[in-house]
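Good morning C.,

I know you're traveling, so I'll keep this short. The sequence:
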Amino acid sequence: METKRAVVLLSGGLDSTTILAIAKAEGFEPHALSFSYGQRHSVELESAKRVAEAMGAAQHVVADIDLRLFGGSALTSDVAVPKDRDASEMSEGIPVTYVPARNTIFLSFGLAYAEVIDAEDIFIGVTAIDYSGYPDCRPEYIAAYENMANLATKAAVEGRQKLSIRTPLIQLSKAQIISKGIEHGVDYAITSSCYDPEPSGKPCGQCDSCQLRAKGFAEVGVPDPLYVKFGMAK
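The tokens, ready to paste straight into the viewer:
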């Protein structure tokens, strides 16, 4: 039986690492795709490299693009990353850590990669439950993109490809994602979720992403191995 290939968008964070594990468990040969896009939390790329190697990705491509050309986000400009926001603040509006059109850009690269390697599946770790209000993490966005993608490529037009955007986490809470990752043997100590980490990779513990991650591990009832690694475990 021919091995099914899949493109896995891999940031090196908790969610994307979990979907890499899920893709492997479902029998796919994962081809990881990461992005160096001018993000201030570029230590995540080191995490992505560690994850791809540790979890046996067939290939790991890092696309070099620079979204600092446009800015418009705390992750690609000098705007401060919000810290110590409570749950009500995080649930209001779209935060300044939103990067304009990021998932559309990333999925477009994934679409090109998938066509070249004859893959019909692109995995992306978006979630519509414990997330920071990003519009490109919603189910309706993913459905619309998938519809567009199947109109966009030579392989699709010629009937050789029926692309599926796979979002196995989209209806899961952070705690449920962590539980699923633990079931698949994910080592979360090699991941990075922080928007404003130290050069060593030590998370700030205060940004929205750190707080959502901490909430998830607390609800699962296990210490975050990344916090243990840096002596931050409570």
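Safe travels,
E.
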